[in-house]
From TrEMBL, chain A:
Keyword Glycoprotein: no
Membrane-spanning residues: none
Keyword annotations from UniProtKB, A to Z: Cytoplasm, Phosphotransferase system
Name of the protein described by the UniProt record: Phosphotransferase
Coiled coil stretches, renumbered: none
Chief location of this protein within or outside the cell: cytoplasm
TrEMBL record, chain B:
Ligand binding (Mg(2+)): 461, 485
SUPFAM superfamilies the record matches: Enzyme I of the PEP:sugar phosphotransferase system HPr-binding (sub)domain, Phosphoenolpyruvate/pyruvate domain, Phosphohistidine domain
Localisation: Cytoplasm
Keyword Phosphoprotein part of the UniProt annotation: no
This protein's name: Phosphoenolpyruvate-protein phosphotransferase
Ranges of biased composition (kind: Gly residues): 20-32
Amino acid sequence: MPERTVVIASRTGLHARPAKLFVQAAAAQGMPVRIRIGAGKSVPATSMLAVMALGAGHGAEVVLEAEGPGADSALDSLAELLSRDLDAEEAPDA
Amino acid sequence: MPEPVAGPVPGSASESGSESGTGSGTGTGTGTGTSPETGTGSASGTGTGRFASGTLRGLGVGPGRTAGRVFRMAGPLPLPDPVREADPDRELGEALRALEAVSAELAARASAASDPAASAILEAQSFIAADPGLLESVQENVAAGMGAAHALDAACAGHREALLAAGGLFAERAADLDDIRNRAVAAVLGLPVPGVPDPGHPFVLVAEDLSPADTAGLDTRTVLALVTEKGGPTSHTAILARALGLPAVVACPGAMRVGEGTWAAVDGTTGEVRTGIGEEEAAGILRLAAADRLRQAASSGPGRTADGHPVELLLNIGSAADLAPGADAEGVGLFRTEFLFLDRREEPGFDEQVAAYEAVFRAFPGGKVVVRTLDAGSDKPLPFLGAAPEPNPALGVRGLRVARGRPGVLDTQLDAIAEAARVSGAQPWVMAPMVSTVAEADDFAARARARGITRVGAMIEVPAAALRADRLLERLDFLSIGTNDLSQYAFAADRQHGGLADLLDPWQPGLLALIAGCARAGLAAGKPVGVCGEAAADPLLAPVLAGLGVTSLSMSAPGLAPVRDALARRTLQRCREDARLALDADGPERAREAVAADR
């Protein structure tokens, strides 16, 4: 199954706003995408609760997985999203 | 001076409670007369007899003082007795409709909220209420025979546990689920949603913890202050209280035991909540608070004590975008340059850096701008640095230490600062973070001066550097004390650790002694020593710092007016006396009390 490993760049981790942006993007892919940490259990990338419960902090390495036609480009775009600091638009030191 | 009022709640963090030994029992209806009273306090009762006068202490997260009667958030809804439901389809339909309605309501509140931070939080919550994982759990619970209310309750509880298990910031989102649970269960049961009380007059809102939805909907005309038993300095309650400009105290043990309708004084600067004051005292505090606001709004110009001793008031910024128009500051005391480097696979180029620094220099023509070179490392990892993970990142290769392995990053940054200074005609002050030794200071100064930078300094965050401030100032032109990191390293207490917040209190006399040593070295050398941590924005502590000999205070824009006002109301001699009182105290509460009593 195609996979991508990516390091969470957002300062607060995959939490709050970054988690929401990621989950929305995953839902827009039109195919089931799952996310996990290392050898842990994978969870649906469309569930914000499940994604936040991974506890993926800043610098954590996560693995994205999907299958089927278009899986590679879907994974690429989601991996690119996670490698950006999605908190950067928020007020610093809030 | 009379002893402060005893803290009546067991486990209260108040040091004063253990001192006086007369703290009355919680909820025993002990008369107010048994507690010692503060000087001006009236001994009149609470109206309910539930709670005697006392001082609770938490973390002040929204500055300012106020007073009013306490009203508590309504508690969670009682669930009906569980029965095996006969019609699972109907139960599921009810539960899902309730979640849908909650999601829609939160979305509507998000678009109605005027504050962008509040709006973003509500939007995320609306999203969680429609989460496929949550819907799936509800379905499973109904399939297992639960009714709608119990299915919703159990589903939210399950996901709540998972978030708590994730810890840290993730655990703070547990309050979101509590709120969604309360709203959805109320909808199913046809009961009003627990929420902000409406006593029909201004009040102090006390809660276990406040959900983002509650704080976003708060009416600042009727809510005087927020006090929560739980929460921390980064909780939503804290962030939103600051955005709304409400005095707020979080992590305040005993707050939920304060009787409904009790008069209380809340000081969001010191974190003190005094209960059992009389209505007259409350009115006096409100008059003082109104006078504070008027005076602060009217104050302007450079920082001065009452007798004209200058204490520069400066801004902490992350980029030119943080330079709020109209911020009444004498310059920039801390220009963090990390923003250029975050979110980057490769080091930002020379030209890009020049443009960013030049924008800030040009914003303060002829004014002071203190640039801090890149403060990164394995605790704030940047991909292009390629730092290996370390077991103790805060004690690892961070700040100036990065230059040990990657001197090119620092050299390029210094080149860019020097070039930006040249083209803008500015004379920036440039300092390195995490300097520990004279040798490190020497090396940094040599690199900076070789590029024509004339004002070279160091951040004081490491206790060893504070202890050698005099030697550092033989090589450097100035020092700037980062109190947050200096606390962390002096008290061996992680800045992120909520349970150790008392050790990180900037009023800790041990910290003040380190600051005093640096300031003394600065006075002896005739060179500036500033403070650029959170401590600088505490209007009670600012005069203490000035009295210790600190020459500048740097903070974010909202802190400037209260600090300017606090300085203007004291002579330098008074500041020195306050500094002596604070240094002489045995703990932060004592230090604060001694100085506040002198107010």
